[in-house]
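Re: [help] complex structure
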Amino acid sequence: GQQLNQSPQSMFIQEGEDVSMNCTSSSIFNTWLWYKQDPGEGPVLLIALYKAGELTSNGRLTAQFGITRKDSFLNISASIPSDVGIYFCAGPIQGAQKLVFGQGTRLTINP
Amino acid sequence: DAGVIQSPRHEVTEMGQEVTLRCKPISGHNSLFWYRQTMMRGLELLIYFNNNVPIDDSGMPEDRFSAKMPNASFSTLKIQPSEPRDSAVYFCASTRAASYEQYFGPGTRLTVT
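Output below.
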């Protein structure tokens, strides 16, 4: 079935550094979604991507829809403490409205 | 606008007891999803509804789990009888018709002792 693989699984960075993470699949996706989950809360939608090659920003966050439609990337510039959390990519399963989620990238920031 | 509302936020119960989790989707959203999240298995879709009708319940673990959506603004997930392995965080999410952008509630942390 369709699966999403996120890397890295975890990141430990210094405040102010830029962050890059990605999400890959052996299947083609027509939509990519990026979510962030804070401890004790539900995932929050950050960015949605709908076209191959699309680059979309939300403040310091930028996400790209890979040209092959089998991957997506999320970048965070000038990280701050509130960026700490788990970042998930997600995509719709073909022919259904339901989503498949990656296993997440856990971001930790050292002040 | 209010987001997805879930209650209770925390539930501690003993094995064998019935547990009912509640969800109010965002007004105007036609689709509702129930997920379970654990460290071992991540986020798993249990069931989803379109216009109050269950569409896919293939993720429901077993007959002890049931879900209903009696109207557009309310859904329940029931576990009867509960078991320790049901301990997890349960999320409800909603979205507009034909949209993939799901909005999650804060979750219910269930502990079964």
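DSSP finds no helices and eleven strands in chain A.
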